[in-house]
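Our working data are protein records whose layout never changes between entries. An example says more than a description, so a record of this kind follows.
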Amino acid sequence: MPLLPIEQGDAAAEVRAVYDDIKTTRDVPDVNNFWKVIAHHPATLKRTWESLKEVMGPGTLDPLVKEMIFVAVSVTNNCQYCIRSHEAAARRLGMTDAQFGELMAVVGMANETNRLATGYQVELDERLK
C-alpha cells in the first residue's frame, strides 16, 4: 500500500522548510506528491531536494536540455511519475511536440542499439578506447 502524501499543514517544521524552499525555487504554489511522499523520511527529502536543486540548477547545460535528459532517463527507467513531471517542466521551458517526438525517437533508438550491442557482446573499437 503506497504511503499517503504529507501535506504542508501536517508536516513537521523541517519538512515544511524543504517544502517552502521547493515552492520558492520552482515558483509553484504547492509541491508535487513525490516530495510529499518521501517526506515520510525527512532526511531523504532534504538530501534529495538539495541534490536535485544543485544538479538541475544553473550550469553549462541549458535548463530545457536538463529536463529533456531527465525525461529520457525516466522513459528508460519506466518511471511514469518522473516522465510526466519532467515533461511538464520541459514544456514550461518551451519544449515543443516536435522536440518531444524527436526525443522519444532518440530514446527508443538508444535503447535498441544499447540492447543489440549488449546482446551481441560487441567489443569496443580500439579508436574509441
